[in-house]
Amino acid sequence: QVQLVESGGGLVQAGGSLRLSCASSGLTFSAYIMGWFRQAPGKEREFVARISPYGGSYYYLDAVKDRFTISRDNAKNTVHLQMNSLKPEDTAVYFCAATWKASMRPLEYDYWGQGTQVTVSS
After folding, report:
1. Are 9 and 117 contacting, i.e. CB atoms less than 8 angstroms apart?
2. pLDDT tens, residue by residue, 16-48
3. Whole-number Å distance between alpha carbons of 95 and 115
4. Residue among 27, 34, 64 at smallest CA distance from 50
5. How far apart are the first and last CA of the chain?
6. How far apart (Å, rounded) are the C-alpha atoms in residues 18 and 109?
7. Is the pLDDT confidence value at 55 over 90?
8. Contact 17, 86 (CB under 8 A)
9. Cα(15)–Cα(46) distance, integer angstroms
10. Beta carbons within 8 Å of 115's beta carbon, 6+ residues apart
């Protein structure tokens, strides 16, 4: 059974930082592209970042480029999202997900975590 479990969310002031982690089990982690998505209340789930299976390539949403960094540790089956210079508009539930495809579309991700709340106060 595949499990993805996010952690690291919380409440932070604007300009602050958080580091999200996603621990996986039950899948061949190093075979998958890993992504982070977010969903704010009343909005559609939005792609944030993805990283290739061995970490050699990345892709970011323009709105988070230069502020967020995705990384992975295949030895520990984890993927991280370092979020700096946070803004109130970053407030959302953040999800990690796994896919075979280099995609920004949620429907093309096969496995999902339950999400972790990030709240940025102004």
Report:
1. yes
2. 999 999 999 999 999 999 999 999 999 999 999
3. 4
4. 34
5. 40
6. 24
7. no
8. yes
9. 21
10. 6, 39, 93, 94, 95
